[in-house]
Design brief:
The protein is elongated, with a radius of gyration of 33 Å. It is an alpha+beta fold. The chain folds into 2 domains: 182 residues, no CATH class; 167 residues, no CATH class. It has 13 helices and 12 strands. Strand 4 and strand 5 form a beta hairpin. About 2% of the residues have low confidence.
């Protein structure tokens, strides 16, 4: 142990001889490690945000969209055609085991007005189950009821943004909001949810009975999507399969023909979204690793220069009894010390950069202990890898030739 500490002290003393050169060399490691920590932190934050956004869909949710990826060789995408009906919704609720909530969905954008104020927003036609499926509580007033749906009543639940924009300083409950010149009475205000992962204001929404949306606002007879909730997670996969079979039967789709709908479980959507964030994180980390490799090359370069400058010193050490492995250990220790110190400073810089970016861009950054440990070990490994060749070169110098070196 004493010998190791002596070797480290000699390494630190050698590095202090050329402070500016040492700092510039460490800067490459600082930038490399810092970039890795910052990029992974931002990537993990994005992944966590995606997971939180998926969780906001509710628990054990199956989403059904009209249209499919391909039909007749033409890409049409989800929700691009009104192929779902209210009767489909009723059949799902009646025939698929484990279903505890169903909400037909009619979605559109429209200008709304209240008094002399107007605002463009998203209009959702839903059933009362929607609030339970999405776990979205009404904090003021109450949600509309099944009776409102059956009678296509002109009632609405609004998001916090609508309340602030159209009724600033007033109580919106009981007041009238006009949707395409149709007056709706506000019966409830939703709890605030903030921005979605796409940056969309989730509170900028008006929710009305789906029958009212179909008959009074849009004048349509089909749905673009259906929200289904099953009792537990183990029912997601069988529920999805049963819904597919039921809808194929109801839509008279013969074997071999493409579905005119798309069914996705919450888990599938979460997997697709997190896979994208994982890919982004891997790409950011790969770019940052390039900086780390460049820093390692800088360490090798400086150590080779150091070997050349200290050739005579190496010869003297060997002349007084130092063996080749002692010289190798000495220069390898210097390289690792450079890398580790740069890595430690880089970890601090990376954590700080991630927090600054998170504050400036309102983007979450999660820096895990695992990645900090990995970054530290990688910086040490870089020092060993890129420092070994210069150290080996120093250890193989001929003592006589080294003493003669000017």
């Amino acid at each position: 142990m004493t010998r190791i500490w002596a070797t480290i002290k000699i390494a630190v003393r050698a590095l202090r001889r050329n402070k500016l050169r040492t700092i510039l060399t460490m800067l490459g490691m600082i930038i490399g490690v810092g970039a890795v920590i910052a990029m992974v932190g931002i990537g993990n934050g994005a992944k966590a945000q995606v997971e939180a956004q998926i969780a906001s869909l509710g628990q054990n949710v199956i989403l059904i969209f009209s249209g499919s990826h391909t039909r007749g060789g033409v890409h049409i995408g989800w929700g691009s055609a009104g192929t779902l009906t209210v009767e489909d919704t009723e059949a799902i609720q009646r025939e698929v085991p484990g279903v505890v909530g169903v909400s037909p969905e009619v979605r559109s954008g429209s200008q709304i007005a209240a008094g002399n104020q107007n605002w463009y927003t998203q209009i959702l036609g839903e059933s009362p189950d929607y609030f339970d499926i999405r776990q979205w509580s009404v904090v003021e007033g109450a949600p509309f009821t099944e009776q409102d749906v059956r009678s296509a009543n002109k009632v609405a639940v609004i998001g916090r943004t609508i309340a602030d924009q159209l009724y600033s300083g007033e109580d919106p409950l009981g007041q009238v909001v006009r949707i395409k010149n149709v007056p709706f009475i506000i019966v409830g205000i939703l709890s605030p949810r903030g921005l979605s992962i796409q940056g969309q204001d989730q509170d900028d929404v008006v929710i009305i009975p789906y029958t009212s949306a179909m008959k009074r606002v849009q004048g349509v007879t089909t749905l673009r999507s259906i929200n289904v909730q099953v009792a537990k997670a183990t029912l997601l996969a069988p529920g999805q399969q049963q819904i597919v079979e039921l809808l194929r039967q109801r839509h008279r789709i013969t074997p071999g023909r493409d579905d005119d709908f798309t069914v996705r479980t919450q888990q599938e959507i979460a997997d697709m979204a997190t896979e994208q964030s994982k890919t982004m994180t891997a790409m950011l980390a790969a770019v940052a690793l390039v900086s780390l490799i460049v820093g390692g090359i800088g360490v090798m370069n400086i150590m080779l220069v150091s070997v050349t400058e200290r050739t005579r010193e190496i010869g003297i050490r060997m002349a007084v009894g130092a063996r080749g492995r002692d010289i190798l250990l000495q220069f390898l220790t210097e390289a690792v010390t450079l890398s580790v110190i740069g890595g430690v400073v880089g970890i601090g810089a990376g954590v700080g950069a991630a927090k600054i970016l998170a504050a400036l861009k309102n983007w979450p950054a999660i820096t895990s202990t695992f990645w900090i440990v990995v970054a530290f070990l990688v910086s040490a490994a870089v020092g060993i890898f890129f420092g070994f060749y210069p150290a080996r070169k120093a250890s193989q110098l001929d003592p006589i030739e080294a003493l003669r070196y000017e």
